[in-house]
Each structure stands twice: as structure tokens, then as C-alpha cells.
Design a protein that fits this description.
Structural class: mainly alpha
Strand content: 5-15%
Strand order of the largest sheet: 1-2
Order of helices and strands: EEHHH
Oligomer: single chain
Largest sheet: 2 strands, antiparallel
Number of strands: 2
Number of domains: 3
């Protein structure tokens, strides 16, 4: 079975539906998506700081959002889901194109 990122390989084992993750390949793919492998050491350090800040802000939002009075109108959920689907499709197209380029 081929995956979008070629990080999963088909195995003969029955564990996990016969799919095993290749950790070295997965590290390369994650490095490319987060842009850690594209530039020098100082840029990699700066990108690690940026991604840590993004993750920290997302975590703070996830913790505080249930405690806030913010609520979405029911009409917004369709637009929100449509945007998520469009972003997912764009990511899949990008991944397919990136897999074609050596």
C-alpha cells in the first residue's frame, strides 16, 4: 500500500492492518513539511522556536476556549467545515505533487 508521503509500507504482519510506519522516512517528511531540512542550522533553530510558539498558542486556545463565552452560530459550521475540507484537499494535492518531484 502506498501512502501520500511514502512513509507507510505494507507488511505481512496482521498487526495494524498490515501497515507499518517507517520512522526515518517519516522524520524526513515531517522535516520537509515543517521546513526544518531546507535551510541551515540557525534557520532550523528559529523555525523550531516559531513552531513551538504556534503549538503553545494552539494549546492555550484549546484550554481557554471552553471557558470563554465565545460561541459559533449554527450557520457558521457549514462554512467552517467547507474551509477545512478545501484546506485538506489542497494539502493532499500538494502532497501528491511533492511526491512526484524527486
Amino acid at each position: 500500500m502506498s501512502s501520500i508521503f511514502h512513509s507507510a509500507e505494507r507488511t505481512t504482519a496482521s498487526v495494524g492492518n498490515g501497515v507499518a510506519i517507517n520512522p526515518p522516512r517519516l522524520r524526513i517528511v515531517v522535516g520537509r513539511w515543517l521546513m526544518f531540512s531546507d535551510y541551515g542550522a540557525s534557520t532550523q533553530r528559529h523555525l523550531a522556536i516559531v513552531w513551538s510558539c504556534v503549538l503553545g498558542c494552539a494549546l492555550v486556545d484549546a484550554v481557554w476556549l471552553p471557558n470563554s463565552r465565545l460561541s459559533f452560530a449554527s450557520s457558521n459550521w457549514t462554512d467552517l467545515l467547507r474551509g477545512i475540507v478545501c484546506c485538506a484537499l489542497a494539502g493532499l494535492c500538494y502532497a501528491e505533487l511533492a511526491a512526484m518531484i524527486p
